[in-house]
Amino acid sequence: MSGTIATVLAADGINVAKNVGFGIIAFAMIFAALCVVATKNVVHAALWLVVVLGGVAAQYILAAAEFVAISQVLVYIGAVTVLFLFGIMLTRARIGTDIGLFNSGWALGIPVAALLLGVVGWAVLDYTGDDVIANQAPTPTVLLSDAYLGPYLVPFLALSFVLLAAAIGAIVIARKD
Amino acid sequence: MLALAVEIPYWGQSLLRVVGGIAAVLLPAGTIVYLFLFKMMSFMQSRLGPMEAGPYGSMQLIAEVGKWLQKEDIAPEKADVHIFRMAPIIVLVSTFLLVAVVPFGPQAYFTNFEVGIFYALAVGSISVIGILIAGWASANKYSLLGGLRAAGQLIAYELPMVLAVVGVVIQAGTMNMQGIVVAQNTGEIFGWGGLGFPFIITQFVGFMIFMIAVQAELTQAPFDMPIAESELVSGYMTEYSGFRFLMFFIGEFATAGVFAFIASVLFLGGWGVPFAWFGWETLADVPGWMNVAGPVIMLTKMLLLTFLIMWVRFSYPRFREDQLQTFAWKFLIPLALANIVVTAIIKVAV
Known about the structure:
- The complex is a heterodimer.
- Chain A has helices spanning about 1-10, 15-40, 40-60, 65-90, 110-130, 140-150, 155-175.
- Chain A starts with a helix and ends with a helix.
- Chain A contains seven helices and no strands.
- Chain A has two domains: about 1-140, Up-down Bundle (Four Helix Bundle (Hemerythrin (Met), subunit A)); about 140-175.
- Chain A is mainly α.
- Chain B has twelve helices and no strands.
- Chain B has helices at about 10-45, 60-70, 80-100, 115-125, 125-135, 140-170, 175-185, 205-215, 230, 240-265, 290-315, 320-350.
- The mean pLDDT of chain B is about 85.
- The interface of A and B includes residues 77, 78, 95, 96 and 138 of A.
């Protein structure tokens, strides 16, 4: 088994440093993700989530997707987590151990998570097969914008419309006082 | 043309970038505190300011830093100690992350990121997390209120800031900071290149929105509701002392300096001089001595902009919380959106 890994790593177009980096970041992300569900304090859970989301951004950078990585930081760390923390602190945020954080059906989550891992893993392995994903330079942002303002314009507009509808809905609900 | 013909090896460049990054954060912070916070504020209030330590009190900073460093590192008894200790580090780290994309010369940059300005806006929002958890972990009502006010304010003013930058990005046609500098210095005003084409001329509305948003992001008066001494006893910073308070303090003024750097890149032409002066055509023609002159130019522009920030800070009374939110959501954001629409129409039409 270890022999095959060594031959794969020695093949052309494999960036060993990138793979090692991927492994380290992935390990940190899994550890942080376990802490999110295992910690006994809601604020700590939100902060561990920051580590997980930051890890995702780092993986995007390794995959040479700079624009997506920075969007990840801006949207998830800068906005979503801050909203989480904001909401938690306005409602229930005591320091120390919180009680009643685990609901009675927590064990059900384990088979669901395992199933999801299996399906996603199978899909990825089935798609790539024995192919080696080549090293590539970061995609220029101009190409990205050309793609979603050209061939993908209609889905882009449809998504914008859904978001606009959600925003207007939020305003309508909030004004009902 | 005088060329700086030194070949610096890769490790040397990396070392220079690390040292330069630390200098680019700490030097502006010290300069701003001494020049503006100590001396200019004193002048405006008809007093002398610090005069004892060194000539004209110039060694006062060293005395202050020494004082903070030797104080005991205290955490309140009921605080969440780990989070409490982590918070100022997050705030300071976000400042260091911010300076990483600012170019100071043709080769004197820390990293030449394709989507530089987008990155700066993204990591600038990380400090909000540090401020929020500092307020929460202190186990103090005033701190929690200050943290929540700060978060509400920073979220509200991040939006006009991002939208103000969009106008510049449309005009320059790139999000790369180096590209924005080159676009301004190779530009011409009606065929005359003697001044380049600093974007403050066409993006003056964007510049004003950006500077107001910076003022709010830094929680400087008149936007100092989150740290209002008279009602919240310094808000999220109440419980901090010693070097952790020092970190918040350095973070505040270093971020002022870094945002001024970013504003001078976006609106004032950055490190460059108009390329027409020396007959340069592209970035590749710019000789090596600009790597030395560039940081000096940037520092001058930074001081000019932080002078404006501090002038406003010392002059205006505090906004009320509702005025503050109304100003951002009902005035600045619509104005910034209108600015984007007009810029886009002109860009396509011309």
